[in-house]
Amino acid sequence: YQMTMKFDNAILKYKGVQSGVLNMDGSNVGEVMVQEGLITMSWHEGHGRSVSVASDKVLFTVSFEVLSDTRVSEAVSVNSILTRAEAYDEQISVMGLTMEFKDGERTVEVFDLYQNVPNPFESSTVIGYTLPREMPAILTIYDVSGKVLLVRDLEGKRGYNESRIRHSELNGSGVMYYQLDAEDYTSTRRMVLID
User: Fold this and answer.
1) Which helix (H) or strand (E) holds 74?
2) Strand 159-166 relative to strand 124-131, pairing
3) How far apart are CA 91 and CA 119, in angstroms?
4) I need a labelling partner for 57 at 20 to 30 A (CA). Which of 99, 111, 180, 187 fits?
């Protein structure tokens, strides 16, 4: 697998990664951007074989010091900002990768809309989002006056998803807003398109 883990560094201080069933060391974790709240991770079995693990086993542990009260599901996410979030099977087929949060026995549903990358952008940008389960979603982009510039119907899978937006799809430039709607969830963010 490989992924980027984003965390709110105003709330959490990254302390490191410890092995579980998977043997993890410094070669598996990129900490260059830890001050920006980003770490990258990758792991593979040395002989190219897939690994089966019982669902009650801990693969590895990422430790944080909590600096202020928060819900962890709102402060930590998996995405593809630096390293694409993917897992692979023995045939190197790409599988999705997601993070699940539990509150006792109950799974906490996670919906999140991430800042587009890059921002500002010229030719294209990627908007990432996380859904708690497979569901349709609508991505709407509009200008500061509220004029709708683009509506995209999405078939989102559980976990991390992304949608690429090209300059040519948008009639305008400057400050814009993008909104993701899925079932009872909605979130809006701001982006800038440079002409």
Assistant:
1) helix 72-75
2) antiparallel
3) 35
4) 111
Share of the chain above pLDDT 90, in %: 35
Torsions phi, psi of 26, nearest 5?
-60, -25
pLDDT for 115 equals 86
Q: 0.70 exceeded by the pTM? A: no
Q: What is the mean pLDDT of residues 8-35?
A: 90
Identify whether the C-beta of residue 76 lies closer than 8 Å to the C-beta of residue 99: yes
CB atoms within 10 A of CB 110: 22
Tell me if 43 sits within 8 A of 49, measured CB to CB.
no
163/121 Cα distance (integer angstroms): 14
Q: What are phi and psi of 72, to 5 degrees?
A: -55, -40
User: Taking residues 103-121, what's their average pLDDT?
Assistant: 78
pLDDT band for 182, please (50, 70, 90 cuts): very high
Alpha-carbon distance of 107 to 170, in angstroms, equals: 38
Of 123, 131, 126, 121, whose CA–CA distance to 186 is shortest?
A: 131
Residue 175 and residue 144 in contact, taking contact as beta carbons nearer than 8 Å:
yes
Which residues partner with 162 through β-bridges? 128
